[in-house]
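Fold this complex.
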Amino acid sequence: MGEVVLHTYFRSSTSFRARIALNLKGVSYRPEFHHLRLGKHRDPAYLAVNPQGLVPTLVWSDGMVLAQSLAIIEFLDEVIPEPALLPRDPAGRARVRALSQMIACDIHPVNNLRILNALRSRFGADDAAVTDWFRTWVAETFGPLEQHLANDPQTGRFCHGDTPTMADICLVAQVANNGRFGVDMEPYPVIRRIHAAAMELPAFIAAAPQNQPDAE
Amino acid sequence: MGEVVLHTYFRSSTSFRARIALNLKGVSYRPEFHHLRLGKHRDPAYLAVNPQGLVPTLVWSDGMVLAQSLAIIEFLDEVIPEPALLPRDPAGRARVRALSQMIACDIHPVNNLRILNALRSRFGADDAAVTDWFRTWVAETFGPLEQHLANDPQTGRFCHGDTPTMADICLVAQVANNGRFGVDMEPYPVIRRIHAAAMELPAFIAAAPQNQPDAE
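Structure:
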């Protein structure tokens, strides 16, 4: 078996998710850095690995290429069952997946760098308009997410019980992004509490953007 | 056990995904219709069911409320294993999930009704600009998706082998959306072939937007 390689960019929140999962599972990997803001993910050599030119991409020890951060996390959870990143029961798994997808489908894609760039180039959006766009879609989902987490007895120290799951991975990566756009986190006490609990764990700390070798 | 209820809107492609999965699994359900264009998903009664006010929401026979279409599909696949909507092997599952997420994360959210509306209201985008926006993000992902499907020997009659999976569900629902924005499908022969194969199946036909009771 060969080495595990993660194609990553320090500031990419989807790369952050993959790094947390790899750390939680105890998988050591060699990072390959792609500077998204300089367009390095569009290099032909990287497009040969991942034709979408997105990060993260995980190259597993057998050479298999895996794209899409949630698919990567579920794969890691299937091949390395402990510590579990999804509950064992179908209802719990559905809840964790839904919480994850609230962030991974309803917030992250519409606030992604390529979209913010398109707002500037197509519609002349300035910094204020881009920031307002970003905050709008966070608030649209973080409101219901906070309400859900606050009202559901399945919420514990983390989003689902007292150990971190895929939902916490998504939550932490989104909160990190929020910081760059000055999102007011005051209305979200449960999200803040869970974020703080997760950021006490070495696997989350080591995966944080500012702790990556390619951080600026 | 009570009845299964699906909160749905005929034109919502995420509702389309849930309808296909329910049909493939042979689950009969009572649809509750929410007219998104008239803002009916913002009714307080519906927000009490799903605080995000999005469709689909599945209320399972035990009363459990499930949000997010991919989480719903994975839940159905776990509680009703046959016919399988994901392969058995972790590598295959990762591939099907990644193909699904290419559509569910990278295309659908940025072309969703709320985003297109925001482009109009915030930036004065006209019909032509909205259509171009929609087509841009389809092309950005359908190009690599076509390439992946064409080059990977795991592609069969469907995205992964010869039976429909979650990836085909996402593909078919996206192709239906594309039609409303006049996306040129000529560059995507494999996607067109898979779409045609899926739309021969009764489960897909019965789930199609135009075959819903709330279709206009």
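Chain A has two domains: 5-83, 90-204.
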